[in-house]
Amino acid sequence: MADEAGKRKGLGRGLSALLGDRPGSAPEEAPTRPGRELPIESLVPGRFQPRQHFDDAALEELAQSIREKGLLQPILVRRSDRQPGRYEIIAGERRWRAAQKARLHQVPVVIRDFTDSEALEVALIENIQRQDLNPVEEAEGYRRLMDEFAYTQEQLAKSLGRSRSLIANMLRLLSLPDEVRAMLAARELSIGQVRPLIGRADALALARRIRDGGLSARDAEKLARKESGGGTGPRRAAPPAASHADADLRALEHSLAQALGLKVALKAEGERGEVTIAFTSLEQLDDLCLRLRGEYRPPAEEDPL
Questions:
Q1: Which of 16, 63, 240, 270 could hold 102 in an S-S bridge, CB 3.0 to 4.6 Å?
Q2: Can you list the domains of the chain with their CATH numbers?
Q3: CB of 15 within 8 A of CB of 126?
Q4: How far apart are CA 74 and CA 34, in angstroms?
Q5: CB atoms within 10 A of CB 189
Q6: Tell me, what DSSP letter sits at residue 27?
Q7: Residue range 67-105, pLDDT digits in tens
Q8: pLDDT: is 57 or 269 the higher one?
Q9: For the residues of 112-175, what is the DSSP string, one character each?
Q10: What is the Cα 117 distance to its own chain's centre?
Q11: What is the mean pLDDT of the chain?
């Protein structure tokens, strides 16, 4: 268990650490000097690739660059446990596809021994860092880690360098109707535009109005509030977007209050807000300043955090 936690902590440091780009790494494993090439046909797509769409035009552009300059960054792979002699792609499937278009026979690789959960986690990290995933693909990757490998939202946040609230908000996107998710995946709508639609029976109708009318995220919120009493299907007394936001704020308030040992109040309006921390003595204020600077040490009678 300790080893698994250590691996997850290491994964959260970023892709360069995974590829060996750090002091003491073997030169043949460094990303700029992989020291090993494999036949392109010996690589197979990864089972845990979170990316579902590969743009043909973008692939052709990359293939042209590879024809002119070669494949400059190696592909991260692991040995396939299902196809002897083959290597499963963990990160770099787009480069592999483009290299095929460029008619390369050999490609540079870095070989790592990853478990299934690590393979999915690394693939997510690589795509997130490159901003290659659409919001639906990212959310489905999070859900898969939770469903197949028993990750909690807190573990996901620590491993992927994301906040717990972001993970929670991304997962909520998966409750949207299929057609709304398709609009989000195609980037016809943004996360801000669809967030007020979560949990609504008329989400699809509103999504079409938001898309066709070119409404901003703020206008989408106003539309959702305006329509909260109409439309078809059941409605909650409060607008869904507001209730989700309130629940997130209350959870964050509670988490901050527990961490700081002080009363915390959060106010949010759109993407902006305020954090109010109440103290009743200068000693509490001094403790708070120490905590914020990372210098706080609990008194001897307290259990270490």
A1: 63
A2: 2-164 (3.90.1530.30), 176-227 (no CATH), 242-292 (no CATH)
A3: yes
A4: 7
A5: 24
A6: G
A7: 999 998 899 999 998 888 999 999 888 899 999 999 999
A8: 57
A9: ----HHHHHHHHHHHHHHHT-S-HHHHHHHHHHHHHHH---HHHHHHHHT--HHHHHHHHHGGG
A10: 15
A11: 77
The H-or-E segment that residue 2 falls in is: helix 2-11
- 33 pLDDT band (50/70/90 cuts)? very low
The amino acid that residue 283 corresponds to is E
Scanning the structure block, which residue is given the tokens 């959060």?
266
Q: Which residues contact 203 (CB under 8 A, 6 or more apart)?
A: 176, 177, 180, 194, 197
Beta-carbon contacts of residue 22 (< 8 Å; ≥ 6 apart): 16
Tokens read off for 258: 């527990």
- Give percent of the chain above pLDDT 70: 73
User: Of 4, 28, 93, 301, which one is the catalytic site residue?
Assistant: 93
DSSP string, 196-258: GGTT-TTHHHHHHHHHHHT--HHHHHHHHHHGGGSSSS---SS-HHHHHHHHHHHHHHHHHHH
Among 101-110, 226-235, 248-257, the range scoring the smallest mean pLDDT is 226-235
Cα dihedral 102→103→105→108 (10° resolution): 10
Q: Identity (one letter) of the amino acid at 259? A: A
Active site residue 93: yes
Helix (H, G, I), strand (E, B) or coil at 187: coil
Distance, in Å, from the CA atom of 289 to the CA atom of 234, rounded to the nearest integer, reads 48
47, amino acid identity: R
At position 17, the amino acid (one-letter code) is A
Give the angle 165-167-172 at the CA atoms, nearest 5°.
95
* Three-class secondary structure of residue 74 per DSSP: coil
Amino acid at 293: R
Quick check: 233 and 201 in contact, CB under 8 A? yes
Reading the block at residue 138, the tokens are 């990212």
Tokens of 95: 């480069």
